[in-house]
């Protein structure tokens, strides 16, 4: 029987890297991990060297060629059992009156269209083999207004709606679909936030600080492990929307 594979998109980034490490530790190396990256080969190779039962996949997932390559690589290595749609972008930040058409295409493309099409294609394989688990990485901003984040918010809200729809349609076929909703997490995505804005944001978080990528990774692992979770959106935000 071929080995179960877990693919993590954007594993070269802060949260993706943490998810890969936690899944590897929790499976005691049993799970074969597909470490996807787009441009940051250095970070991806460093992670690959830390996770013995893993393989690298380079792909721009905003293209059909890139998405096809991801699935092909996974099928070559084993049985696609877990898909974590983590790759995402939050820029450009544009006030709603100045949103450009190409920004809409870019952000909705990477954050919504890409996971939607990957889920369609991976789920077909999962249903063939009888089971699978998908976790989408959403954001607190799916439910919270922040000037400059209109398109990002819409992309993540759409991803959450799709998560629930697919959980409904595919649950009966053995595929669970859940999402994790991080608050403000210390990664490259948030490192450009200046000290003043950072302080204002911290004041809105009950725990008073940005979170670590590992906290999100542990929530992803929980959504995978708990076999009665389906269509759930789990917040990991230190208590920000209370
Ligand atoms: N950090 C936060 O506070 C926060 C909060 C809520 C939600 N999130 C979500 O968490 C996820 C991970 O974010 P992060 O903070 O870890 O960000 P990050 O460190 O900037 O990582 C982003 C990842 O996405 C990949 N990526 C970007 N565009 C891509 C494309 N066209 N095709 C394929 N891969 C692409 C990057 O690949 P390369 O670097 O290899 O090019 C990188 O691995 C995102 O979905 C983000 O929206 C983050």
Characterize the structure shown:
With 242 residues, the protein is α/β, with parallel strands linked by helices. It has a single domain, classed as 3-Layer(aba) Sandwich (Rossmann fold). The protein is built from 7 helices and 7 strands. The protein has helices at 14-26, 41-50, 64-77, 101-129, 150-170, 195-204, 213-225, and strands at 4-8, 32-37, 54-58, 79-85, 132-137, 175-182, 233-236. It has a 7-stranded parallel sheet with strand order 3-2-1-4-5-6-7, with helices on both faces. Helix 1 (14-26) crosses helix 7 and helix 4 (101-129) runs parallel beside helix 5 (150-170). The longest helix has 29 residues, at 101-129. It is globular and about 55 Å long. The chain starts with a strand and ends in a 6-residue tail after the last strand. 42% of the residues are buried. The model has no long low-confidence stretch (mean pLDDT 97). The protein binds NADP nicotinamide-adenine-dinucleotide phosphate. NADP nicotinamide-adenine-dinucleotide phosphate (NAP) binds next to helix 1.
């Amino acid at each position: 029987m071929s080995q179960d594979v877990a693919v993590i998109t954007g594993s070269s980034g802060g949260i993706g890297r943490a998810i890969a490490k936690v899944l590897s530790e929790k499976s005691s190396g049993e799970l074969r991990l597909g470490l996807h990256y787009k441009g940051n080969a250095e970070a991806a190779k460093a992670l690959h060297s830390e996770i013995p039962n893993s393989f690298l996949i380079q792909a721009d997932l905003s293209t059909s060629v890139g998405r096809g390559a991801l699935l092909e690589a996974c099928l070559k290595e084993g049985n696609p059992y877990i898909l974590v749609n983590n790759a995402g972008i939050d820029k450009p930040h544009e006030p709603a009156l100045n949103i450009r058409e190409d920004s809409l295409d870019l952000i909705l493309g990477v954050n919504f269209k890409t996971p939607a099409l990957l889920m369609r294609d991976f789920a077909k394989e999962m249903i063939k083999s009888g089971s699978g688990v998908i976790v989408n990485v959403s954001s607190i901003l799916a439910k919270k207004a922040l000037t400059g984040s209109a398109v990002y918010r819409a992309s993540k809200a759409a991803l959450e709606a799709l998560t629930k729809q697919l959980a409904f349609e595919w649950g009966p076929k053995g595929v669970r679909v859940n999402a994790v909703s991080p608050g403000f997490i210390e990664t490259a995505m948030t490192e450009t936030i200046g000290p003043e804005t950072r302080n204002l944001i911290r004041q809105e978080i009950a725990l008073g600080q940005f979170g670590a990528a590992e906290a999100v990774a542990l929530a992803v692992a929980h959504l995978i492990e708990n076999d009665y979770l389906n269509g759930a959106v789990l917040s990991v935000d230190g208590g920000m929307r209370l």
